[in-house]
Amino acid sequence: MSVSVVKSAKYYDGKTSKAHIVDVVLSGSILHITDERGKELAAWSLPTLKIIEPPSPPVAGIIGSDKYPDARLNIEAGKGWNYIKSRIPNNKRTKRLPTHLGAFISYSVLAIISLAFLFVMFPRIIGNLAYIIPQTWEDALGKQVLATMAGNDKICVARAGKDAIDRLTKKIQSQMQRKIEYDIRVIDNSYVTNAFAAPGGHIIIYRSIIEEAGSPEEVAGVLAHEMAHVEQYHTTKALIRNIGLGFTLSMIFGDVGTLESVAQLLSQMSYSREDESAADMRAKEILNAINIDPRGLQDFLVRMSEQEIDLDFKGSEYLKYLSSHPDTKERIKALNQDENREYNTAMSYDDWEALLSVCDKTKPANYGK
Amino acid sequence: MNEEAELSLEEPEDIKQEVSATKSMKPSKPKKYDLVYDGKTGSIYKIVLLDLLLRIITLNIYSFWGKTRFRKYVVSHHSLGGDRFEYTGTGGELFKGFLKVLPILVILFAPLAFLEAYPVLAIFYIPLIYCYGIAVYGATRYRYSRSRWRGIRGYLDGSTTGYANLAFGRMLLNIVTLGFAIPASDIAKHKYIMNNSYFGNVKAEFNGDSKVLFGAYMKSIFLIFLLMILFLGGIFLSIGASLTMGKTTAIIGIAVGFIGVTLIFPIARSIYTAALMREKMRGLKIGNLKFMNTVGAMDLIKHKLANLFIMLFTLGFGIPYILQRNIKFNARYNIIMGDLDAFQAEQGKDQGLSSGEGLEAGFDIDAGFF
Predict the structure, then answer these.
(1) CB contact under 8 A, B58 and A71
(2) Which of A160, A186, B2, B128 has the fewest Cβ atoms surrounding its Cβ within 10 A?
(3) DSSP alpha helices (H): ranges in chain B?
(4) For the segment B58-97, what is each residue's pLDDT rounded down to a tens digit?
(5) Is A2-91 a CATH 3.20.20.100 domain?
């Protein structure tokens, strides 16, 4: 049973660009394409047919065959197109949105996996670069960080006070696994109550920490905490992670802009939590080893949370509601001591007096050295 | 009488065949064909919006498929002589190409991330610029090989490094001549690509001439300088006036000046751009086909200004519409001349590419005619 599909359609055999005017006849399941002289140019079987492009008048639609990938049959709308279309297997029609919905789902899964990799694995991996950075580089980086943070403030250098803090530092330093120069500076700026450990062993403590402390054990706690950060490379690692993630994101995906900074902020936060707990625990260990009461650090954290201050400048204005107040409670709890132990004082009474007056003499900071 | 006339009209078979043979060899009077685009703005919107959504969710990985979908739509809605163009590329091929060159992309772009701290790293721009040439040629080659008309594929011969060397060399020349070599350089680069372009087995020929182009270029430069002087002068005046008239006037003055400066370049440059578009078509020949572009500088300027206003007033939501406008603009001014019926090409060599040019993804290149 033969059905004439269309007369005078255009056919291209894929070998040359010559247009053949053809008659198309469907016999059983074979489409016969014959030219005007009756010569058969092609015979396509129905299952191999596919729609390459639907017609949009006045332009004709295009039918192709899987078996002859280069050949093209042009059929116009209203001139046999609907008939042919009804004979073509459903899945050979052009992709519509539903297929892309399927793609949507698989891409989302891929995205989640990529996200997991990016935010969990990748930073951990590149953070380890911190261990192989040369000491001089880390040192320079640290000085750069300090210059950015407190470059304009003066440092407190009253001799007796400096000696007092140096003695305390040496005691803590004796327990440090990392044998570098731990350089402590007290910053003359009463508006800030905070302390920070920059890469390379450069630690800054703002004078309010000392002046508002309830006991020298509090100062010792803060100092041990910061030195623990240095010992564990926390800041260096965090910097590399942040630069690394941001850099990698923008490099692979072009300028992702806001997405990137959100990602950076998020990763910055979650790592800090781990680092803070780790620094707390290490500080507790060290202080116990040198016989200083670690509850000083606990008292300090209690006071800070009452004033809504986050040590290490972790919290910033708009991150406050995301940041660590429940977190701080955890940390305070973790510093609980069960035993009733006899501790030495963190420093002599004279040293404590001297330390309280360390800012009687100040000089400009010079982070260039 | 009539019978005789009728008898004499009847030619013997063999003479008939000879006449028809000569007829098909000689192109008949050259006809003009328009490049027809029948895509719809609504469809462009759907494609662009879905692409944007999926890109966000997939951290831009979807871009390869989104780009392909957009290209497919645009290409397949262009037709010539009643026959559609086809794009047979796939997102997977582009993605594969990207993965293959990912390490190279990292190495190329990595040093530049630390540019602020170490300005000396700017030297790494040089390999980057060179690779841009490679990416352009590779991307063009891929698009050619995935484009068809009447079943026949495109093909790009020549070597990627050959083009990259040329592009890099011409860039240096442009710098050394303070830009005066730009018209000649643009023609030279276009020539390299066109003279290596094939439709099936038919080679394209390009004989561009940069002399007329240079005139348009000089007009552009002159206009830019003139407008710069006017606008900078205007800014200084407004700042001066604002010292007596207050902050708001100053801000308005600077804003107007800023807008003016950002407008000057595209407007003034349009004189050159339009001339370049015209010359690229004028010098092109494929088989018996010749090309013509009828765009004028004013057409281009009006088009660009309209785009700018649409962008501003729709706060960016009009971007798909702008894309549609650009496509239509391109199709409107291109005319093909010759005899499409007599035009013949055979299927040419297989380009043999299994994946897209990966580097283009790093540079975000789109190398197509439309």
Answers:
(1) no
(2) B2
(3) 2-9, 13-25, 41-57, 63-76, 91-109, 125-145, 160-176, 182-195, 210-245, 247-282, 297-313, 319-333, 359-363
(4) 778 888 899 999 999 999 999 998 889 999 989 889 888 8
(5) no
